Amino acid sequence: MCLAIPALVVALTEPDAALIDVGGVRKTISLELVEGIAPGDYVVVHVGYALARLDPEEAQRTLALFASAGELALPS
Amino acid sequence: MSQVRSDYVRPVDFKRGHVDMSHGGGGRAMGQLIEELFVREFDNAWLRAGNDGASVTIPPGRIVIATDSHVVSPLFFPGGDIGCLSVHGTLNDVAMGGARPLYLAASFVLEEGFPLADLRRIVTSMALAARDAAVPIVTGDTKVVEKGKGDGVFITTTGVGVIPEGIDIASDRARPGDAILVSGTLGDHGVAIMSLRENLSFESTITSDTAALHGLVAAMVAAAPRIHCLRDPTRGGLATTLNEIATQSGCGMIIRERDLHVKPQVAAACEFLGLDPLYVANEGKLVAIVPMEDSEAVLGAMRAHPLGRDAALIGSVVEDPHHFVQMQTTFGGWRNVDWLTGEQLPRIC
Amino acid sequence: MKYIDEFRDGALARRLSSAIAREADGGRTYNLMEFCGGHTHAISRYGIADLLPDNVHMIHGPGCPVCVLPIGRIDSAIELAARPGLILATYADTMRIPASKGLSLLKAKARGADIRMVYSSADALRIARENPEHEVVFFAIGFETTTPPTAVAIRQAQALGLSNFSVFCNHVLTPAAITNILESPEVRKLGTVPLDGFVGPAHVSTVIGSQPYEFFADEYCKPVVIAGFEPLDVMQAILMLVRQLNEGRAEVENEFTRAVGREGNVKAKALIAEVFELRSSFEWRGLGEVPYSALRIREAFRAFDAEVRYGLAYRPVPDNKACECGAILRGVKKPTDCKVFGTVCTPDNPIGSCMVSSEGACAAHYTYGRFRDIPVVASAS
């Protein structure tokens, strides 16, 4: 449904906007819908607006969950 | 009183001038434009002779004729312009038939009001592309349409080439067991164009891959004369080309996503816009279908050539009455690579 | 691409695939609906069905705002675009939706209507600022993810006093659609469609949070796992649903913790509430009239409401009788159960909503998966 993409905030621009980078491609998007974003943060971008800040620790935790999936319920 | 030079003709003002209806009128203004721009830039004996058509000698053998109209917008893009694109495009069509390109013709439909500075830039670019390819533009035509009836400039190029003995390359020759090869990275041209489209623009260093491929083809054919199919995946991308060959040859195909090369920025731009690189246009790449036992030799020849450094074996032709092109995803599952539905548009959903 | 590539890793996919196969109870089936069209697209595009055991079925839900937009609303958009001097700004997704009289926005554009594809509502605002002598209408579609950007544009238009700008609002709501599915006779009473659980939308949830889904888990006893957008997220969510069902739980779990919290985006939600209010009813293509499922622009911003400004009258247009989209959207039927699937109705010539966008159940199956329908499948070398 809603195509959104995690993007690196490269720089804050005015007003309420940021230059973001995804894989080397850059675009200026709006920060009107979020707060407290700083360069170096990752945000989820949909139709030119950041909707949420991506939590790097949670991302790592989720990846670890994937990796551990194969380790549960080993045959006895 | 100063002497008036009786033979003085005011040169065409390429800096500030614009195309007007007189340039297509067949009269002096048109003759002058042709002389000072096209003949001067393309610079060969045929054009200097000033005839309506060019008289050429074709070596014996089967001939390939190909023609293409170019309506790309924007006219100038990172890595090229409509001029060199029109030269490369037709040279490539001739080369995909297995032929060595010999001559080109170029027709222009100019829109009234089009800046002559831009026209000269385009023609200079065409001249350079033709010179680099060692294929002269020997004849042409110019027409002017009223303002609003054209997109600046439309260019149609036609090319003629001769097929070397022993070569039989056609899109219906793919056979089960054949190898499918691609000469390089996918989606560069389409993304370069899209990066300039108003309302969709983004910053990147992606450039169009527009290039003449006949040199690469010659190297490939020298390595393995039994090549079955050659096709350049332009509009509609690799997916469309594979489906076309599959349908024409009456077979299916299996490819592996992990063997497709896509530049990181091209992949990123496609993510942004919801596009699939498989369907994005290329202007300097080719698909080759060759007997599997020749694939190593052909790949080697491709990778040794500047335009084929990123060449890869991406899959094989299979028996399939439904002519499906199936792809094993990097994820491990399978999906159809279907025909394109209309033009691929960006999406938000 | 960071936070994208890692979540598409094939090796991890195989681990998750084994885990699901191991933990799925061979004595039952698991019928899971992925609500969101983006998830439908991911499942098809990555071939996730191949990595699931036979007793885990994915049913494609109606979370595709393009698919559920009624023909009558497109007719209105075309009517607007046909007005002399009016510029219609739209997301490209709407361009090919077939409307009445064989038209679409793409065809209307070919006939001379000034229709411009934009990436963002901000682009529509810019077009209005740059063309003060033209009326500019922004064709707003989408679920709760896409609604806040429209709200921002309307507020900015008001602040700028942009009198030539308005919005044709077609924003719809996720919880209402889920309720509609769960309340449908087949699911609730007759038990014909066993619907065991939901994979919740990724980006809608960044805005509304995980809290709204608790109602469904409690009231209908169906587990919900909110999943991220990438294929590994979807598979992990499927594993979590399988576990919940095995353990007899019906809870809301969040797999997309890196972007979704319980409250969602408070700022965005407040903006939506400020600019929009609920319509008492709205027609969803394939589902019929659904109460309190869509938004319209509030009184305070009515100057920017295109429906009011241009006096648009909505004329419902029924779907083709042969179209099974309604049943397919509810998970009662599969695309291949529809008589016109793949013959008359194809992505090139869509008859109903499920074929209209690449995320619709029928379009996704046709484009990515129809090789599975055919018994004779070429074997991989």
Describe the structure.
- The complex is a heterotrimer of chains A (76), B (349) and C (381).
- With 76 residues, chain A is α+β, with helices and mostly antiparallel strands.
- Chain A has a single domain, classed as SH3 type barrels, CATH 2.30.30.
- Chain A contains one helix and five strands.
- In chain A, strand 4 and strand 5 form a beta hairpin.
- Chain B is an alpha+beta fold and 349 residues long.
- Chain B has two domains: 143 residues, PurM-like, N-terminal domain (60s Ribosomal Protein L30, Chain: A, 2-Layer Sandwich); 158 residues, PurM-like C-terminal domain (Phosphoribosyl-aminoimidazole Synthetase, Chain A, domain 2, Alpha-Beta Complex), CATH 3.90.650.10.
- In chain B, the strands form three sheets. Chain B has a seven-stranded mixed sheet with strand order 8-10-7-11-9-12-13, with helices on both faces.
- In chain B, helix 4 links the parallel strand 4 and strand 5.
- In chain B, helix 6 packs antiparallel against helix 9.
- Chain B starts with 27 loop residues before the first helix and ends in a 13-residue tail after the last strand.
- The model of chain B has no long low-confidence stretch (mean pLDDT 93).
- Chain C is an alpha/beta fold.
- Helix content of chain C is 37%, strand content 18%.
- Chain C has 16 helices and eleven strands.
- In chain C, the strands form three sheets. In chain C, strands 2-1-7-8-9 form a five-stranded parallel sheet, sandwiched between helices. A four-stranded parallel sheet of chain C has the order 4-3-5-6, sandwiched between helices. Chain C has a two-stranded antiparallel ribbon with strand order 10-11.
- In chain C, helix 1 runs parallel beside helix 11.
- Chain C is globular, with a radius of gyration of 21 Å.
- The C terminus of chain C is likely disordered.
What does the secondary structure layout of this molecule look like, with pairings?
The complex is a heterotrimer of chains A (76), B (349) and C (381).
Chain A (H helix, E strand, L loop, with lengths): L4 E9 L3 E6 L2 E6 L11 E5 L2 E5 L2 H14 L7
Antiparallel strand pairs in A: 1-2, 1-4, 2-3, 4-5
Chain B lengths: L27 H15 L2 H5 L12 E9 L5 E2 L2 E2 H15 L3 E12 L4 H18 L3 E9 L7 E11 L15 E4 L5 H7 L19 H10 L5 E3 L5 H13 L2 E5 L7 H10 L13 E4 L4 H10 L7 E7 L6 E4 L5 E3 L13
Parallel strand pairs in B: 4-5, 9-12
Antiparallel strand pairs in B: 1-6, 2-3, 4-6, 7-10, 7-11, 8-10, 9-11, 12-13
Chain C lengths: L9 H14 L6 E7 H9 L10 E8 L7 H11 L4 E5 L14 H6 L3 E4 L3 H10 L4 E8 L4 H14 L4 E7 L2 H10 L1 H6 L6 E4 L2 H6 L5 H7 L3 E3 L4 H16 L5 E3 L11 H10 E9 L3 E10 L8 H4 L15 H5 L23 H4 L4 H9 L12
Parallel strand pairs in C: 1-2, 1-7, 3-4, 3-5, 5-6, 7-8, 8-9
Antiparallel strand pairs in C: 10-11
Helix pairs in contact in C: 1-11, 2-16, 5-6, 6-12
